[in-house]
């Protein structure tokens, strides 16, 4: 049994530890808040000066804020406890933020800040509560500025080639058509499948929509894997359908009608793709 003096000493020691933890928490909170302001300035400077070109980033920021409040309230009853792994992550992310900031690598700096904020939540409130905010961290990746055009073009080339090859192969079953590279010919007219027609924008739309859904719905880990695999496959299928219909309409109608349909068919195919993803996602929602 503890004596009265030993009990008092234990309480004093516990009080000192709590005071020390509170002080360090305030220091970390001040650092994260100050760095968050700097991160916001860098983020705004990295975006295009034309607001219409950054609709995805602005929408992602708004939904992250709304989702953060929603998850905070939903997890209010979970016990809060410090997490040593989170504290190590916090230190590592702080070093990465400093290195990326000193080297002026904007994209790495912004990504390190996302990891810094996630590790701060885990370190302060424990893994059980912190992991509930991981969907916000995933959605936060869509706040990043668009990839350089050169990188996007190189990424689009394989999809451009696959979509063209598949659509021409199916179109040959119903109409006379020839193909050279990513250009196919119908009734003597050339249809150039540009990188913008590779379906990359459709893929981004599907992935971004899923990133929003997973903030407000709980998915099993297998659900994330399925969605990441299903998104590019669904994009290739729908883009092949679009190019196939373009070729068929170009043969039976006119090139002008075919190009008009090609330009507006996304208003049908994208909602169809989102509906299919939603139906597929229901199989992987966590109970």
Fold and architecture overview:
This protein is mainly alpha-helical. The chain has two domains: 4-143, no CATH class; 149-284, no CATH class. It is built from eleven helices and three strands. It has a three-stranded antiparallel sheet, covered by helices on one side. A hairpin with a 2-residue loop joins strand 2 and strand 3. It is elongated and about 75 Å long. The model is unreliable at 9-19 (pLDDT under 50).
Main attributes of the structure:
2 domains; 11 helices; 287 residues; single chain; 3 strands; 3-stranded antiparallel β-sheet
Unreliable stretches: 9-19
Strand order of the largest sheet: 1-2-3
- Give the count of helical stretches: 11
Radius of gyration: 26 Å
β content, as a range? under 5%
Give the overall average pLDDT: 85
């Amino acid at each position: 049994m503890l004596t009265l003096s030993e009990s008092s000493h234990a309480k004093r020691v516990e009080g000192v530890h709590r005071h020390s933890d509170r002080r360090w928490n305030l220091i970390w909170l001040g650092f994260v808040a100050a760095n968050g302001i700097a991160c916001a300035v860098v983020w705004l400077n990295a975006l295009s000066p034309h607001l219409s070109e950054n609709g995805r980033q602005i929408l992602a920021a708004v939904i992250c804020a709304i989702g953060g409040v929603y998850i905070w309230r939903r997890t209010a009853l979970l016990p809060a406890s410090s997490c040593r792994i989170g504290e190590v992550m916090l230190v590592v992310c702080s070093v990465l933020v400093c290195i990326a900031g000193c080297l002026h690598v904007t994209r790495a700096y912004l990504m390190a800040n996302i990891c810094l904020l996630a590790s701060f939540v885990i370190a302060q409130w424990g893994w059980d509560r912190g992991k509930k905010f991981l969907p916000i961290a995933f959605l936060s990746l869509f706040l990043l500025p668009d990839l350089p055009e050169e990188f996007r073009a190189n990424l689009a080339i394989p999809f451009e080639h696959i979509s063209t090859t598949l659509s021409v192969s199916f179109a040959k079953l119903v109409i006379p058509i020839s193909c050279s590279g990513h250009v196919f010919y119908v009734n003597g007219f050339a249809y150039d499948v540009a990188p913008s027609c590779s379906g990359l924008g459709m893929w981004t739309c599907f992935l971004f929509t899923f990133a929003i859904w997973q903030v407000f719905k709980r998915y099993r880990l297998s659900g994330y894997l399925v969605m990441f695999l299903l998104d590019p496959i669904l994009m290739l299928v729908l883009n092949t359908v679009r190019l196939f219909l373009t070729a068929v309409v170009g043969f039976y109608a006119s090139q002008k009608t075919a190009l008009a349909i090609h330009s507006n068919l996304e208003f049908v195919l994208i909602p169809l793709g989102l509906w299919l993803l939603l139906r597929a996602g229901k199989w992987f929602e966590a109970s």
